[in-house]
Amino acid sequence: LAMQVLNFVMIISSALMVWKGLALYTNSESPIVVVLSGSMEPAFYRGDLLFLGMPDEPVRVGDIVVFKIPGRDVPIVHRVIKLHDERDTSKQFILTKGDNNQVDDRGLYNPGQLWIHKEDIVGKVRGCV
């Protein structure tokens, strides 16, 4: 019984170390996410695994990003369709939209919120399975 418990603990520990190693390597709090909806079809389908990275370069129009809305736990995978850079603070204002959606994501953001910011982004999509 002790041997089975130790094997189980080693498997869990190994998985956590791999996850943390990927998080450090990709500079993303969540290096792998699952697509939960069909809003990005035909680029990504429900159940696809996305590999993320958080590069140092700024976000650009056309990038597919995973972001979280403050106060909500579920990440959203959508494409950047519009950017606005504030000159004084260099802060980026980002507008997103799902490829399969008719309108932009302002309806998904918190009430009164018209843009997301780089700190809301979990990572850029680097690959998928």
UniProtKB/TrEMBL annotation:
It comes from the Eukaryota. InterPro entries: LexA/Signal_pep-like_sf, Pept_S26A_signal_pept_1_CS, Pept_S26A_signal_pept_1_Ser-AS, Peptidase_S24_S26A/B/C, Peptidase_S26, Peptidase_S26B. Residues 1-23 form the signal peptide. It is found in: Endoplasmic reticulum membrane. Its EC number is 3.4.21.89. PANTHER family: SIGNAL PEPTIDASE COMPLEX CATALYTIC SUBUNIT SEC11. Belongs to the peptidase S26B family. This is Signal peptidase complex catalytic subunit SEC11.
